[in-house]
């Protein structure tokens, strides 16, 4: 991405000053030899970037990792934070990691989370983008980023809206099992919600002014599950999703959709925050 945007990389490694990690040769009593070894390892990790002509600045900090990452991003200031997620299967598949989660919750700039499985699916320039839309201000703000990426890389963009019902789908509930009047009313309400959502989706897609008109999809069910299913079915290179501001309520609510998508995605996820 840095090469694509002619950007500079600020690579940061944070030594948790209160934790000893002997297997990596790093401890709270680190010395200059330890720091030299860390810088050498960082330089080796970014050798491909340097060989491609991308300028890389190396920073080694000590302290609480999430706090140092956020402070460094604000000081630069960074246009984007790129950070990995943990795990590949089973329980570890769902472990986002406290550092990544705190960065996601508090970062003022967009955050790109990259799962271990993403190496085989993501490519640049992006070819297939998925943007989750709930028509909130934060989602429409994220859509601007998705449209920009689609224009710059001539990518196909899919806009997905998920209607969440008070039951798990699929399968759909059997409306015939309800009293006739209630079943008819529920079916009509569902048709109304779907029609209104699809109309809004198509209107939003028309405003993007992309060379390739976005694909619009309407799904029913749990939002994060539908987002992940569509990303898998379409072979998405990137999921773009918006989150609200940083009020205490927003932070507490963060886990419902965005957090679950980040935890479980098999491709990178770009999280765009709309500041209050």
Quick summary of this structure?
With 276 residues, the protein is an alpha/beta fold. It is built from ten helices and nine strands.
Overall, the morphology is elongated
Count up the domains.
2
Helicity, as a percent range = 40-55%
User: How do the strands line up in the largest sheet?
Assistant: 3-4-9-8-5-6-7
CATH architect. name of the largest domain: 3-Layer(aba) Sandwich
How many DSSP E strands? 9
What class do helices, strands and sheet pairing give? alpha/beta
Largest sheet: 7 strands, mixed
Q: H/E series, N to C?
A: EHHEHEHHEEHEHEHEHHE
What is the terminal separation in angstroms? 28 Å
Which whole number gives the mean pLDDT?
83
Number of helices: 10
CATH fold name of the largest domain: Rossmann fold
The top-level CATH class of the largest domain is: Alpha Beta
What proportion strand? 15-25%
Radius of gyration based on Cα positions: 21 Å
Query: Unreliable stretches, pLDDT < 50, 5 or more residues?
Result: 19-28, 88-95, 248-255
Account of the 3D structure:
This protein has 276 residues and is of the alpha/beta class. The chain has 2 domains: 1-63, no CATH class; 66-273, Rossmann fold (3-Layer(aba) Sandwich). It has 10 helices and 9 strands. The chain is 42% helix and 19% strand. It has a 7-stranded mixed β-sheet with strand order 3-4-9-8-5-6-7, sandwiched between helices. A two-stranded parallel ribbon has the order 1-2. The chain has helices spanning 32-45, 47-51, 65-75, 90-93, 98-106, 137-153, 180-206, 223-234, 248-253, 255-264, and strands at residues 9-15, 56-62, 81-84, 111-114, 128-132, 156-163, 215-220, 238-243, 269-273. Helix 3 (65-75) runs parallel beside helix 5 (98-106) and helix 8 runs parallel beside helix 10. Strand 5, helix 6 (137-153) and strand 6 (156-163) form a beta-alpha-beta unit.
